[in-house]
Amino acid sequence: RHPTAWKRAAERLHPFERHARHPRAALAFAVLRGTTVSAATPFGAALLETAAAHPDAVRVDGDRIRPATWSGRIEEALAHGDAGAAAALAGERPGELVRRLDHLLRLHPGEEFVPELEKALERALPAVGAGPLLSALGALRARAEDRRGGRRVFFPRGEVARAQVAWDERAPLPAPLVGEVVARLEAEVLRRFAAAGGEPYELAVLDSGLADLTVPFGERTAARALVAVPRGSTQILPEGEVLRLFLHWTEPAGNRTDLDLSVAFFDAEWRFTGVCDYTTLRHGPRGAATHSGDLTSAPAPDGATEYVDLDLAALAGNGDAFAVPLVFAFDNVPFDELPDAFAGFMALPADGPRDSSYDPRSVRQRFDLAGQSRVCMPMVVDLASRRALWADVHLPPSGGFQSVASHGNRLGSVARDVWEHFGSGTRTSMWDLVVWRAAARSRQVAVVRRSAGPELPDELWLYRAGDGEPAAAFASRISALEPPQERRGAADADAEVAQVAEGKRVFLATVHAGAAPAAASGTAYRLFPGPAEASGEFARVSAGDLLAELGRADIAATAVGRGRYPL
Q1: According to the model, what pLDDT value does residue 391 have?
Q2: What confidence score (pLDDT) does residue 401 get?
Q3: Measured distance CA(249)–CA(491) in Å, rounded
Q4: CB 3.0 to 4.6 Å from 241: which of 315, 350, 449, 541, for a disulfide?
Q5: Do 451 and 360 share a structural domain?
Q6: Cα(559)–Cα(565) distance, integer angstroms
Q7: Per-residue model confidence as pLDDT tens digits over 137-155
Q8: For the domain that residue 300 is a member of, what is the CATH number?
């Protein structure tokens, strides 16, 4: 990793002059320098003899000796289809093992485990980080389905999330093989939750609405927001007919900066139907989408603000199925260079004023614009179901996205790919996470089953673990929402929860804080604040706290302490 410094050290050490006394040092510097080696010379023959004694570290390539890195060896095994060797090598690095599980399973000749992969999983899973473990679990459970011809979306590491897209050409994996691997990964998650310590819960109360939230294990590139909604989650839009999108920024002193807020519209087949931006201030009948007007500078201290008001019902009636907001720097200034830059949305009453007044109480989401980025697609709005997918994706300015009217179809392709990716079921959800935690630490679970429409009441489903029923089987029943032992109709689900959980030690996991059981204690997770926050007897936790239980140092150290993996 620091070749120049070592080469300079070699200028003083003269390692080749003492190769007989320090053969491995001479070999290392020959690799580092790219020294030409010939078996016809005593020095070359000695180097080749030392290299032959260390096939795990180096390889002979013609008249040069190359490093045999771990990555090179596993890529070679994968390229040659050697499932056993690849699995054995991957097992040396637990995180890489689960990241490459899909590729390793594609090398299997049938539906049975390659013995080396079975051993590698048994040894490595206790040391795998929570993020890779849950990522692999979410991605693999859908691999028995044939999705060839679809699109795959990736988010490479970086300061901001830039989506990369590729066609999915992978053949489906055998269902028994997928089921076996997923069961092993789930068993590890359940084991960790059970081993996290603490007194068991008498009852766990889970909100089925948590299925709309993804687990936030890769949020280093996420924008800082009013409500920390993980990328890929969906939110029900606030009640009312008008959704106001807003953009606010302040330019650096002496540097005029123009940000723009645009909204592109698409029909149900993702065909571009129009735009509402600084070039077209109205879209649809009766101003279904209305832009406040273009501002081209934002001097301190007031800055500048642009709005786009969306009448969701009118847009749906116009044939618009999706709305895709876009924020971009017209003059190509990165967001990071602005003293202040944020965007978001608020709810306006249909019969209320539609002026430029700003009421902070009506804001439902606000997020910072940050990073060396100039174009951001914060969300995708489904106008018919009144749901917003939180995308938080940054796009390259070279793609023409600064002219939405000219490149609407390309923007629609990006939005469709992101929408289908996050809706494909390949991401682990908060519902999955709380179900595993509940099944591992409680024998009775109450699920608030959210209704499919406002005219239908919610229900409370009560599950009880059977005598000797494994936690995995119990979790499977709850996760699939199989028929419960008891079902209660609930005109007020929160009141029913408060009654069922009264006086008990409870694990409470909901989208909104709507129930606070009297005389109860335990642990409470909620995404949004609500009318009934859990009392001081409850330990409030975030999604990150729940994930931390899966990555406790003492759990991972179990494998290390037994000498399986070096620190």
Answers
A1: 86
A2: 63
A3: 45
A4: 350
A5: no
A6: 7
A7: 999 998 999 988 888 887 7
A8: 2.60.60.30
Residue 486 φ/ψ, nearest 5 degrees? -145, 140
Q: pLDDT for 171-220, tens place per residue?
A: 999 999 999 999 999 999 999 999 987 789 999 999 999 999 998 865 54
Quote the tokens at residue 307.
């709005």
Q: Going by DSSP bridges, is the β-strand pair 458-464/151-154 parallel, antiparallel, or unpaired?
A: unpaired
Give per-residue pLDDT as tens, 460-476: 999 999 999 999 999 99
Alpha-helix runs per DSSP H in 107-221: 115-124, 130-140, 175-195
Tell me whether residue 73 is in a domain. no
| Same-domain status, 250 and 392 | yes
Question: Residue 512: what pLDDT?
Answer: 84
- For residues 373 and 448, membership in a common domain is answered with no
N- to C-terminal Cα distance for the chain?
19
- Angle, helices 42-52 vs 23-33, to 10°: value is 100
Residues of the chain with pLDDT under 50: 220, 553-567
The parent domain of residue 305 ranges over 234-413
- Count of domains in the chain? 3
The residues pairing with 247 across neighbouring beta strands, listed in sequence order, are: 306, 343
| Amino acid letter, 393 | V
For residue 202, report the phi and psi dihedrals to the nearest 5 degrees. Answer: -75, -30
Nearest to 309 by CA among 244, 265, 372, 355: 244
Per-residue pLDDT at 181: 93
Query: Which pair of structure tokens corresponds to residue 221?
Result: 């590139």
